[in-house]
Write the structure tokens for this entry.
Amino acid sequence: MLIIKDLHANINGKEILRGINLEVKAGEIHAIMGPNGSGKSTLSAVLTGNPLFTVTHGEVIFNGKNLLEMAPEDRSREGIFLSFQYPVEIPGVSMTNFMRTAINEHRKYKGLDPISASDFLKLMREKKDLVELDNKLASRSVNEGFSGGEKKRNEIFQMAMLDPKLSILDETDSGLDIDALRIVANGVNMLKSADNACIVITHYQRLLDYIKPDVVHVLYKGRIVKTAGPELALELEDRGYDWIKQEVDTP
């Protein structure tokens, strides 16, 4: 589904990604962990087309297409979704209108007719229940006045509505209490299928107690320096990142 080869990227001339190699297959959940400043959020930004970052080398193939040649909106229409670490508020734009517009843009890209009002409301009710999103929140402006947990829940609701092929969750667990974490993780797990995939970016094992990864990667100094199964996340929880740094930095 996703193949990244020797990806290099910078911001304002400072190189952040220094040769990322990664392959994600349909049906898989990959966790990317690493210390602050290692390039985790930069990777998610580059994959989704954030114009602040410049790709200087490498390639990214998504379902057989060159992802780096696509505009950000076309990457979304092709099936890539990003759950932001800090979701933005959009005052004056209701969740209902926001989601219906987004869904219809995706349908238009695929040559489909706009979703009917009745089908949209049915879909919205179904997906809202999946993440236990309150009716009052669903009828308000996007994220306006939401708590941190409500914003993250809303992100997974949007993910459920758009049904992406590849979901990138950038520190979705940041600022969540235990109940909100469980609800968000349950939503992610219920959306998993053999036809989609997920990249979970996190610092902590606690999210991976709920979302079980197939593969865990450690990103450090702009490179993936270690890859293993779920046991790697447990080892990081126990030992921290210092041993990884020592392995990489020792000549």
Observations:
- The two ends are 35 Å apart (CA to CA).
